[in-house]
């Protein structure tokens, strides 16, 4: 019996225009609450951004920053941060790469190195609702959870391999494609976050359903009891999924929950 549902956001739960069928979701969410099935967002995005989509649903739980931060509305349930020395090593390397721009994601806020472009800042504010400009690392008074990197779209795979080769001893390199790459703590990913949440709630991974479309969803799709890929998913995700559903633009997550869980 499924006791927890975890969904990725972009390309999975949200349509391409960043909306979802709120009326249908409200009906489904009410049924999930009656059956005591937890609804969880498992995203690479910032906690403060994700929560804006679910203001009317206070019991939603969040596995944010690709598993580094697990929390509900009231409190942090798990948090994993880089050491200060590792943050310095990664930042020094990234600053030497002229094609790369990056943000530093912390527990309190995200941070934008001032030398990067205004266009990149404007794009970043759409995904990071708490974003501060900084001149250097000395201004940080926060726990660093993740580095979010922007590279030329067509060179995404090249830079994933390049960063794995040069920074693999410090972090895991993951990407949802389209010029976006995340550097996260080794062994910290969405599946790890769901396992930690499961320990708090008394729910095993085998009693969870997870939905995803990108390569940063691979671990949770493989490790939960029912891993569901969107029809628009990366081929690697489709390969490991137990089931598939219709695309994000067709609200495949809601259709699957309605037809296969409720």
UniProtKB/TrEMBL annotation:
Name the record gives this protein: HAD family hydrolase
* Superkingdom assignment: Bacteria
Q: What keywords does the record list, in alphabetical order?
A: Hydrolase
User: Which segments cross the bilayer?
Assistant: none
Q: Please tell me whether the keyword DNA-binding is annotated for this protein.
A: no
Q: Which SUPFAM superfamilies match?
A: HAD-like (SSF56784)
From the UniProt annotation, give the residues forming the signal peptide: none
This protein's GO cellular component annotations are: cytosol
Q: Which Gene3D superfamilies match?
A: 3.30.1240.10, HAD superfamily/HAD-like
Q: Which NCBIfam families match?
A: Cof-subfamily (TIGR00099), HAD-SF-IIB (TIGR01484)
Cross-referenced PANTHER family, in alphabetical order? 5-AMINO-6-(5-PHOSPHO-D-RIBITYLAMINO)URACIL PHOSPHATASE YBJI-RELATED, PHOSPHOSERINE PHOSPHATASE
Tell me which InterPro entries the record gives: Cof, HAD-like_sf, HAD-SF_hydro_IIB, HAD_sf
The terms under GO molecular function for this entry are: magnesium ion binding; phosphatase activity
């Amino acid at each position: 019996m499924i006791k927890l549902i975890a969904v990725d956001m972009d390309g999975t739960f949200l349509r391409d225009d960043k909306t979802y069928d709120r009326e249908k979701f409200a009906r489904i969410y009410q049924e999930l609450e009656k059956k005591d099935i937890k609804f969880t967002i498992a995203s690479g995005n910032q906690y403060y951004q994700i929560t804006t989509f679910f203001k009317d649903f206070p019991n939603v739980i969040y596995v944010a920053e690709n598993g580094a931060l697990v929390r509900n509305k009231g409190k942090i349930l798990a948090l994993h941060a880089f050491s200060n020395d590792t943050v310095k090593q990664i930042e020094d390397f990234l600053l030497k790469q002229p094609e790369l721009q990056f943000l530093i994601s912390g527990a309190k806020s995200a941070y934008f190195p001032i030398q990067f472009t205004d266009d990149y800042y404007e794009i970043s504010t759409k995904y990071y609702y708490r974003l501060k400009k900084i001149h250097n690392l000395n201004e940080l008074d926060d726990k660093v959870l993740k580095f979010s990197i922007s590279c030329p779209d067509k060179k995404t795979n090249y830079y994933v391999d390049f960063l794995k080769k040069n920074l693999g001893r410090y972090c895991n390199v993951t990407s949802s494609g389209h010029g976006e790459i995340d550097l996260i703590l080794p062994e910290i990913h969405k599946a790890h976050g769901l396992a930690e949440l499961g320990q708090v709630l008394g729910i095993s991974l085998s009693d969870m359903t997870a939905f995803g479309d990108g390569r940063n969803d691979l671990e949770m799709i493989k490790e939960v009891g029912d891993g569901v890929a969107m029809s628009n998913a990366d081929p690697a995700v489709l390969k490991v999924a137990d089931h598939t559903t219709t695309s994000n633009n067709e609200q495949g997550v809601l259709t699957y929950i309605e037809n296969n869980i409720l």
